[in-house]
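Write out the bound-state structure for 5-O-phosphono-beta-D-ribofuranosylamine.
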Amino acid sequence: MRIAVLISGRGSNLEALIHDQNRYRVCHVISNNFNARGIALAQRHGITNTIIDWSDRRQAEQMLCDLLIAVKADLVVLAGFMRILSPAAINAAGKVINIHPSLLPKYPGLKTHQKVIDNKDQWHGATVHMVNEELDGGLILAQTRFQVDTSMNAEQLADELISKEHKLLTTVVGLIADNQMTWQDQLLYMNEKTCSKPLMIEY
Ligand code: GRF
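---
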């Protein structure tokens, strides 16, 4: 299975995917950020990459659509991509998933770790979900969670979560590559588990 990965920055989830390649292959990395560490990473690994200048949003969205159509990936993975995909881009991409650092539907958007602290939540985690036109709003495929240590600050929570994100994302992409998840009517279902419940994996 060929996957295209969209990033904006550090690219640690991209790195986890690159290291996990055997059932799937990262065929293209796309970024809106010229200085993204993930782009340097892609270059080091000889992965084709494209940087799209987002200063003209309309033009950027058109370029992204054209590129996604040309790349013809089996799956598009948003891994820290800090732009909302236009409906046309979602359509061009076909199958798109995103990793988000919260237990959706709680806390779509930014500053999720701080929100967990502010609300004194007992649990924190990450979600892999399908991408639709709503911000962090598509069907939830899988989540991982851990109990919050109340002495932790937001940065420590983010550090605790990121390695679990890597495991969750590579697990879900691997399941899709192994045809353990089935696409139906634009949605993705676990083959042998219940159709309506997302996977919950604790690492
Ligand atoms: C991750 O926390 C991911 O969940 C969120 O953005 C962050 C990206 O980190 N969408 P990295 O660039 O993969 O290191």
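---
The pocket of 5-O-phosphono-beta-D-ribofuranosylamine is lined by residues 7, 9-13, 79-80, 99-101, 126, 165 (CB under 6 Å).
Residues 107 and 115 are 7 Å apart (CA to CA).
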